[in-house]
Amino acid sequence: MKIIGLTGGIACGKSTVSKALRALGACIIDADALAHELSQPNQALFNAYVQRFGMAIVTPGGTLDRAAIARLIFTDPTMRAEVEQISHPLIRRAVEERLRMAEKEQKRAAVLDVPLLFEAGWDALADEVWVVALPPEEQLTRLLARDKTMSEGEARARIAAQMPLAEKCARADVVIDNSGTKEETRDYVGKLWEERIFGRA
């Protein structure tokens, strides 16, 4: 089974590529979805966050206040490091368990869909890394279109909080330019699947 690490800049269209790979038969292991599962009340990540940050990060309904955590992460680098120190080991354990399941199911490829693949050091789990990229101004435009409540300053801060996209591209085995249409991206992903998973030129 080939393991692909899939990452990219915020709002660059990683989910489009992930969906295309799922449609081709890849097992998608989505780190954000796993984090969401683990963040439900009384799950491991929820309990760890509450133990560290108290009830200020819990909504009146008893669920995790994601907006409060996002504010912590994107305004204070020290706090971001602390949140990652809590969350990454728990999520990685869940990722490794899903990889074992995919191996048992004899999947041809598993895709680690991880926004912070390089930052967390999880590229070491992958046989190769695919990065989804956009030109900087296009990335900013798409982020602002995706989240209408975000100011341009906040959007730039979110982008700046991640590893520079140029650095991710330099470290990638494959760079997927997502500045075209969704159809063009899907076609290119299909071509990559044939070439890199099945070894067909």
From TrEMBL:
Keywords: ATP-binding, Coenzyme A biosynthesis, Cytoplasm, Kinase, Nucleotide-binding, Transferase. GO terms for cellular component: cytoplasm. GO terms for biological process: coenzyme A biosynthetic process. GO terms for molecular function: ATP binding; dephospho-CoA kinase activity. PROSITE patterns: DPCK. It is found in: Cytoplasm. Its EC number is 2.7.1.24. ATP binds at A11, C12, G13, K14, S15, T16. Pathway: Cofactor biosynthesis; coenzyme A biosynthesis; CoA from (R)-pantothenate: step 5/5. It catalyses: 3'-dephospho-CoA + ATP = ADP + CoA + H(+). HAMAP family: Dephospho_CoA_kinase. Catalyzes the phosphorylation of the 3'-hydroxyl group of dephosphocoenzyme A to form coenzyme A. Belongs to the CoaE family. This is Dephospho-CoA kinase. It comes from Centipeda periodontii DSM 2778. The lineage of its organism: Bacteria, Bacillati, Bacillota, Negativicutes, Selenomonadales. The gene is coaE.
